[in-house]
Please model this.
Amino acid sequence: MTDGQTFAYAFKTEHLTRSFSGFKAVNDVTIEIPRGGVRAIIGPNGAGKTTFFNLLSGLLPPSTGRVFFEDRDITGLDPFQRARLGIARSFQISNIFRKLSVYENVRLAVQSLYDGKASFFLPIGKTGDLHGKTVAILADIGLSDVADSLAENLSHGDQRRLEIGLVLARDPQVLMLDEPVAGMSPKETHATVELIQRISPGRTILLVEHDIDVVMSISTTITVMQTGQILAVGTPEEIRANEAVQRAYLGGLA
Model:
């Protein structure tokens, strides 16, 4: 990550709206998302959280309103342009190289930082740096022991962690994770939660997640959406005690 001026927020939106055939999936949202910590976005089905996530990452353009990253208006930037600013989203590298080893997958992701493309050919003077960073990322994501295994032979949970590792190769300031524990066993979920906690210092991690137990255990703050708008923002304790949130979830947070 780059060092430099510290800003109070990672993202800020002003009157952000996204309509689909007249339906406002995100409706006039103005919010600041502070830097640092794990920031979860939750809500009932159809609340607008995924659309809001897509607006922040640049996958969708807004119908109206603006998105800021730190002090910069990024409303018109494409996802790859936002990535260059330090914003990474896990599904942007959704397809691992299944026939390559875990090590080779991460090595190729790191390689792209040197010359902007994935290639095994690199000037000799840079191969040490490449290997060192690859090994460090494998340690971060807890896959050092299976570095020589083919990616296709990994469990579902390990494949998801490998995807996170490919994103970490860019050393992003903001890491956006869309349902990072979906489909995982309890053991895999626990390992992924530990990974998120391990890589969060010095970063802002923004996630959409349906597993409320995970959200409550890992989040610094939680933003609750309903019908395209912000229903509540607070700590896990504040959200758990919020009567409006309780009604929205029909007691699901009790």
Q: What stands out?
A: Strands lie at 9-20, 23-34, 37-42, 64-69, 72-73, 87-89, 174-178, 204-208, 221-226, 229-234.
